[in-house]
Write a structure and sequence with these properties.
The complex is a heterodimer of chains A (276) and B (307). In chain A, the strands form two sheets. In chain A, strands 2-6-7 form a three-stranded antiparallel beta sheet, with no helix packed on it. Chain A has a three-stranded antiparallel beta sheet with strand order 3-4-5, with helices on both faces. The relative contact order of chain A is 0.10. Chain A is elongated, with a radius of gyration of 25 Å. Helix content of chain A is 43%, strand content 13%. Chain A is of the alpha+beta class and 276 residues long. Chain A folds into two domains: 96 residues, no CATH class; 161 residues, no CATH class. Chain A starts with 15 loop residues before the first helix and ends in a 5-residue tail after the last strand. Chain B is an alpha/beta fold and 307 residues long. Chain B has eleven helices and 13 strands. In chain B, the strands form three sheets. Chain B has an eight-stranded parallel barrel with strand order 1-2-3-4-7-9-10-13, surrounded by four helices. In chain B, strands 5-6 form a two-stranded antiparallel ribbon. Chain B has a two-stranded antiparallel ribbon with strand order 11-12. In chain B, strand 5 and strand 6 form a beta hairpin. In chain B, helix 5 packs parallel to helix 6. Chain B is globular, with a radius of gyration of 19 Å. Classes of the chains: A alpha+beta (276), B alpha/beta (307). The interface between A and B is large, with 60 and 58 residues.
């Protein structure tokens, strides 16, 4: 890549792009123009930066994905994370946003192919951290819902709380995540039992729950702005034992929504809606 | 509570009475220490946070920092602005820094003479810059921009370095002095970085300090370093922030404070973070030196004393 003349005298200065390429690729030589005192060789000196960058980003992944880290063990995780770091650097200096593509990486990474649930555990952990840093917002309370005229309820639409996430999985992702984070044995968990997970922050702390049948469809539709009536009907289609009352009390307890609005004759009534 | 009143309260709560950072010891804030710091009979002089850790939208980090800020003066220390970058500064990131500064009203705001971002990739390290005229001009432009956006002076920190660029044309102290003169920024003197770089680049730390514009220094950093060896088997120190401050660094600190007088002094400990009492012990050691030197520092005669 060409550097602009303003920032590098032509033919003299190795651009920082060479520096960064060599930082994450141990097969590349130490960049030109990099020296020790008195022009000494500087391979080990340059390696300090290589090591800082890689170890720093690997440590960030350990912090972001603690359950995946424990599931595969420290030494293996670090080797695997190095491969990811080489392929994918953070896009921003906010390190807590790193690792968005780590689940896809795990799906494609042959050495963990036998741990088919691993990518979904990583997805749940990524959602957990997003929920941890999400904007503060009041949650919809039972009385907010109670204030709505019962015949208007099917038309009610909800505003998603910034910390709320649903994860649908073909694996026992919530059981594995919860047992792992609380230091319990995974021996009794059948990893192939499909589970839907809910991540939310109703008060101060992030909470992870397993959703009952139909609830994932119900909540996802509501989070996408569909009406309560549409979501309930879709959920009942998917799971014949879907229970609307349980789903509603569950969504209030978990704090998944920040507001409710009713469209009646084009008059829009909004409670706790964060959009100003 | 309706959202509108909660937002109004949030605005009132962030009007802090006192932003001035005292010339005492402070500590880098770690989430696991927040409760211990708030409950401790020893009141640390100030706390310092990495700005990037508080650039999320909400949640526990902001709740903890708000509690700290209501009780202590604060310094905001950026690690991700990439002031030494070849490319333009990331405006979105600068806006995020501005938001943190406006929200928490820190007494001091600082960043590094380093770069960490290139072509939209963030390398999470403080990478070195060549000390030449084009780089000097660019760094000055970036600092002008930061100070303009924030509407305040920032402090620039001297780096730990492990290598040099063969096209550097001036010394680090000359480079930094020129930046401070041209941009009006203040300086953050990291004495561990001075010791690390001096050892790694084969010069005397006291020579560096005698050339450093101490009159522009508004804060000092102290931290621990690790020891490795270079390509020729000579010592190569690593700015690890994972252990107590080295005795050699304490000695330099004592000399600097004796020279310039008491200045806010941060103990940094970012890796293998110990329990709060261990960090407090380091802070107390800095407090002792600051108190001992308070009455007898040699104002205005630094060149005679440090050489």
């Amino acid at each position: 890549m060409r550097q602009s003349a303003e920032i590098s005298a032509p033919g003299k200065i190795a651009p920082l792009g060479d520096f960064t390429n060599a930082l994450v690729n141990p097969d590349l030589p130490t960049p030109k123009g990099v020296i020790g005192p008195g022009g000494a060789k500087a391979d080990k000196r340059f390696n300090v930066y290589r090591n800082n960058v890689t170890v720093g980003l690997v440590n960030a992944l350990v912090d972001i994905f603690p359950a995946v880290h424990r599931l595969v063990g420290d030494a293996f995780f670090r080797k695997m994370a190095r491969v990811y770091v080489q392929a994918e650097r953070p896009r921003s200096p906010l390190l807590f946003e790193y690792g968005g593509t780590f689940p896809q990486f795990l799906e494609a990474f042959a050495p963990v192919k036998h741990l088919s649930y691993l990518a979904d555990v990583a997805r749940l952990e990524r959602q957990w951290l997003d929920a941890f840093h999400a904007a503060d917002s009041p949650v919809l309370e039972a009385q907010d819902l109670g204030a709505v005229n019962p015949e208007d309820l099917p038309q009610a639409r909800f505003t998603r709380h910034p910390a709320a996430h649903v994860l649908r999985s073909s694996f026992a992702v919530v059981s594995i995540f919860s047992a792992n984070r609380s230091g319990q044995s995974l021996a009794d968990i059948d990893p192939d039992a499909a589970e839907d997970g809910l991540v939310s922050r109703p008060h101060h702390d992030v909470e992870v729950r397993q959703l009952p049948p139909g609830a994932a469809v119900f909540l996802t539709m509501l989070m996408d702005g569909e009406t309560l009536g549409q979501a309930a009907s879709q959920a009942a289609d998917e799971a014949e034992d879907f229970d609307l009352a349980t789903a509603i009390s569950g969504m209030l307890e978990a704090g998944i929504f920040a507001g409710i609005s009713i469209n009646t004759n084009s008059k829009r009534e909004t409670i706790h809606d964060q959009s100003d | 509570m309706t959202p509108s009143t909660s937002r109004a309260n949030a605005r009132i709560e962030t009007r802090f009475n006192d932003s001035t950072v005292p010339a005492r010891a402070g500590a880098g804030l770690k989430a696991e220490h927040v409760d211990a710091i708030l409950q401790d009979d020893y009141r640390i002089g100030f706390l310092e946070v990495h700005a990037e850790n508080y650039m999320g939208d909400g949640g526990a980090p902001h709740r903890a920092l708000s509690a700290i800020r209501q009780n202590f003066p604060l310094c905001v220390h950026g690690v991700g602005l990439s002031i030494g970058s070849e490319k333009a500064l990331d405006k979105a990131h600068l806006d995020r820094l501005k938001k943190v500064v406006e929200r928490y009203e820190p007494g001091l705001v600082s960043e590094h003479l380093a770069w960490s971002t290139h072509d939209n990739s963030y390398y999470n390290d403080l990478l070195p810059v060549p000390y030449d005229q084009p780089t000097l001009d660019r760094v000055c432009d970036h600092i002008d921009q930061v100070q303009e956006v924030l509407g305040r002076k920032i402090l620039l920190e001297n780096p730990s370095t492990y290598l040099q660029f063969d096209h550097s044309t001036m010394s680090e102290t000359d480079f930094i002095a020129q930046i401070a003169r041209r941009t009006g920024c203040g300086l953050l003197l990291d004495i561990n970085n001075v010791f690390v770089s001096a050892t790694n680049q084969h010069y005397r730390p006291l020579t560096y300090l005698s050339e450093f514009p101490l009159e522009k220094v508004e804060e000092i950093h102290l931290a621990g370093h690790a020891t490795d060896t270079d390509d020729d088997g000579r010592p190569l120190l690593i700015d690890a922030h994972d252990r107590p401050v080295d005795d050699a660094v304490w000695k330099l600190y004592d000399i600097v404070i004796g020279q310039m007088g008491p200045v806010p002094t941060l103990i940094e400990w970012d890796n293998d973070v110990p329990d709060w009492p261990v960090l407090r012990r380091e802070a107390l050691r800095a407090d002792e030196i600051l108190e001992r030197r308070a009455g007898n520092y040699m104002l205005g005669s630094r060149h005679a004393a440090i050489c």
